[in-house]
Design a protein that fits this description.
CATH superfamily of the largest domain: Glycoside hydrolase/deacetylase
Radius of gyration: 19 Å
Shape: globular
CATH architecture of the largest domain: Alpha-Beta Barrel
Strand content: 5-15%
Number of domains: 2
Helix content: 40-55%
CATH topology of the largest domain: TIM Barrel
Structural class: alpha/beta
CATH class of the largest domain: Alpha Beta
Length: about 300
Amino acid sequence: MKRNLIINFHVVKNTQWFETLVLYLKSKYKMVPISHFDDVENYKKRNSLCSITFDDGDKTVYDVVFPILKKHNVPATIFVSPRSIVEKFNFWFQEIEGYDTAKMLDILIRELDLSVKEKSTLNYRGILKTLPIDKINEIISIYQKETKTPPKTFKNMNIEQIRELQNSGLITIGAHTLYHPILKNETNERTEEEITKSITELSELLGEKIKYFAYPNGTPNLDFGEREIQFLRNSNIEIAVSTEPKFIDENADKMAFPRIGITTGSLTFIKLRLFLGPKYHILKSWLRKSENNQRKTINK
């Protein structure tokens, strides 16, 4: 069966796991750079095409992923924030890793004046994803002050590493906003700034035009919509990618290409994940309560 897809990763810590996956993908797909999807005629052909992407620019992309990509000559795209690279700050979701759930919920309930019947049913990450980025950072600052928790060590690649990837001939660099907000939660002015400045600042850092963009979190209509797409068009972005778990066909929107996310799992599990495509996401939502449903409820 011919299927075209973009796969998305964030953090990859296991070299053997990643190499096994890359070899499997090479055996089943023609591995192509994301630019290959700019021409619809490329994915009408018989070859099954696959492009690999990484969001955020975690250091493991340089330490673990890049050597394997070079070894097997596999192209990839990495979406990063120029502001994070220069100022060396972690994204908010990186900063809250390991935070005490009960304490975070207590702070959120207090600071947001939430009416809660059963705290155990709440997902604090889901609540944070309903907030503007400045409020998220304020909540994190309150947690750090009240628990005497210091900021974490910088988790992402530096500019020298990014440039090395760029110059390898295998890696394409794309923009991923300045501070990784959920764009739908921001004002028109803030959203435009997050998009346009991330593109122009990254272009200045790397000395080349930025053509590709990844939406933070990336769920269509929940995390981004037509407003964001128009800002990207105004910035001459050629392809933007979401996290909608679907395959790519000739009807796919270049400003919201779907991607199938992979984090962990055995090769057998990943084969099943890729075989099921969007059906896996439906099954997963049946098996556990959806974070997105909670976010929609809070937004209302």
